[in-house]
Design brief:
It comes from Azonexus hydrophilus. This is Response regulator transcription factor. Pfam families: GerE. α8 crosses α10, α8 packs across α11 and α9 crosses α10. The chain is an alpha/beta fold. It is elongated and about 55 Å long. The protein folds into two domains: about 110 residues, Response regulator (Rossmann fold, 3-Layer(aba) Sandwich); about 80 residues, Arc Repressor Mutant, subunit A (Orthogonal Bundle), CATH 1.10.10. Helix content is about 50%, strand content about 10%.
């Protein structure tokens, strides 16, 4: 994939360099004016005090998906970015591994909302579905899952994080991740949110 990083100055941060060494830097004024080639993902830095609604429209008019790199990230800002049309929002100074995860999710057609907000959304979705249709919320897990995989899947569907699952089951987080990989494959789901919706009885 081709990446373009948009900022008010040519400041290629070390974490960007490590995650996207071939990315092009483009000044925001030029990018908003239509300069630069079309790319797979356009990363736009949102500095402290700046408004998403002022920055995004011109960038969204071009081909490629836009991810906001926020100097002051937060759940409200992430939701605002997604509502405005961005494909994701993360911390400007996120570790290279996180930026690569964002790129993978967005590049495959997903939205990046961040782990904290994702857990909140899953938990709220599970509670809403359970209240609306208690019977479907208790739908049986697929028989193809092992007993441990069923435990992990049920906890994910209730909004538990990998760390919480690991603590409750007295296993390592890497073991939880391994179980999740198998669960996604066996249930035909792509991520935690899809899995939660499926287990809680909502058709995808």
């Amino acid at each position: 994939m081709e990446y373009e990083i948009v900022d008010t100055e040519h400041a290629f941060l070390p974490n960007w360099q490590a995650a996207m060494p071939a990315a092009r830097m483009v000044l925001r004024a030029a990018a908003q004016g239509g300069a630069g080639a079309d790319v797979s993902i356009r990363w736009c830095r949102l500095r402290a005090g700046e408004s998403i609604t002022v920055i995004l429209p011109a960038l969204l008019a071009r081909n490629g998906k836009t991810v906001i790199l926020a100097d002051e990230p937060g759940d409200a800002l992430i939701l605002e970015a997604l509502s405005a049309g961005a494909a994701g929002c993360c911390n400007t100074h996120a570790a290279p591994e996180v930026l690569q995860q964002v790129a993978a999710v967005v590049g495959n057609g997903g939205l990046w909302v961040g782990q904290n907000l994702l857990q909140q959304l899953i938990g709220r979705t599970a509670r809403i579905l359970s209240n609306q249709n208690p019977a479907s919320a208790k739908a049986a897990l697929p028989d193809t899952l092992s007993e441990r995989e069923k435990q992990v899947a049920a906890m994910v569907a209730s909004g538990a994080s990998n760390k919480e699952i690991a603590n409750r089951l007295s296993i390592a987080e890497r073991t939880v991740k391994a179980h999740l990989t198998a669960i996604f494959d066996k249930t035909g789901t792509r991520d935690r949110l899809q899995l939660s919706l499926k287990i809680n009885g909502l058709k995808l």
